[in-house]
Design a protein that fits this description.
Layout: E1 5-10, H1 13-23, E2 27-34, E3 37-43, E4 52-57, H2 63-72, E5 78-81, H3 85-94, E6 99-105, E7 109-115, E8 121-127
Parallel strand pairs: 1-4, 5-8
Antiparallel strand pairs: 2-3, 3-4, 6-7, 7-8
């Protein structure tokens, strides 16, 4: 069994697509009209055979209070692995991305958290080599 697709609720699918492709660097995989919304997925160009991220409309009434509570408490909704958190922090800050937590060494990893402009906090993580 493997993860093929996971989703993030977004306030505006088109704005989310622009942010996730133009700012973060993901590539559009599916863009299929479904009524007022779309089956809209992106993939990492570093892992073209890896899982898709569905940019899911945040229309369901349970989504807003759930995401608002997570943001209020500073809890990221998703985590993306990177090779160098400091580099990505500098790159994304240069593109106007707002970080709620700068690169922070947590022992086994270095993490940073940013606002995806679509209603979510996202954590970047750089795992440290296993010392065992």
């Amino acid at each position: 069994m493997k993860i093929a697709l996971t989703s993030l609720f977004v306030d505006d699918q088109r704005a989310a697509l622009a942010f996730y492709t133009e700012v973060l660097g993901f590539t559009k995989h599916h863009d299929i009209p479904l009524g007022d919304n779309f089956w809209l997925t992106v993939k990492s160009p570093e892992s073209p055979d890896g899982p898709e991220l569905l940019l899911e409309p945040a229309d369901h009434p349970a989504v807003k209070p759930y995401r608002d509570a997570l943001v209020r408490d500073g809890i990221p909704l998703a985590q993306f692995a990177v090779d160098d958190v400091e580099f990505e922090h500098a790159r994304l800050t240069g593109k106007g991305v707002v970080f709620t937590q700068p690169p922070t060494d947590i022992g086994t990893a270095v993490v940073a958290v940013f606002d995806d402009t679509c209603g979510n906090l996202i954590q970047l993580i750089q795992m440290k080599p296993d010392e065992n």
